């Protein structure tokens, strides 16, 4: 699935995202990595898979890969058995629940799974490696070399 950042970003989101620092470009198309409730996960210009409101985008192509699955989730307050939040997400099979939590905690297997996925489906990492922090750059380069072998 591909989306394009809208020409005109709604005022609420200009404030929320501080559009001067928004790491997406107007009119550029982006590949959606997953959908969670009303958010798309997209690799931003810094090479990070970030959740953005779907209201920021126009859909260019609504086709998704055959390996995507629908999952539902509910986090409960165990003391009162009341859902704290719940919803559905649509994501590649490889990206199990809490995948991105593990990814952002720099859990090696999650990062390797992520890099294999984007390599397999020719998703540009965007990692303008010149823009990303040195520790990411070195880590991505190292892991990309590992999955090539």
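^ Assign residues to that structure.
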């Amino acid at each position: 699935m591909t989306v394009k950042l809208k020409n005109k970003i709604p005022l609420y989101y200009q404030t929320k995202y501080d559009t001067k620092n928004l790491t997406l470009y107007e009119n550029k198309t982006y590949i959606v990595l997953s959908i969670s409730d009303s958010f798309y996960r997209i690799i931003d210009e810094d090479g990070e898979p970030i959740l953005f409101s779907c209201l920021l985008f126009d859909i260019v192509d609504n086709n998704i890969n055959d390996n995507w699955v629908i999952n539902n989730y509910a986090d409960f307050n165990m003391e009162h058995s009341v859902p704290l939040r719940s919803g559905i997400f649509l994501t590649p099979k490889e990206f199990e629940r809490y995948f991105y939590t593990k990814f952002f905690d720099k859990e090696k297997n999650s990062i390797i799974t992520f890099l294999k996925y984007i390599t397999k489906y020719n998703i540009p990492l965007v990692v303008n490696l010149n823009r990303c922090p040195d520790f990411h750059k070195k880590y991505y380069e190292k892991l990309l070399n590992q999955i090539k072998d």
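The longest strand covers residues 82-92.
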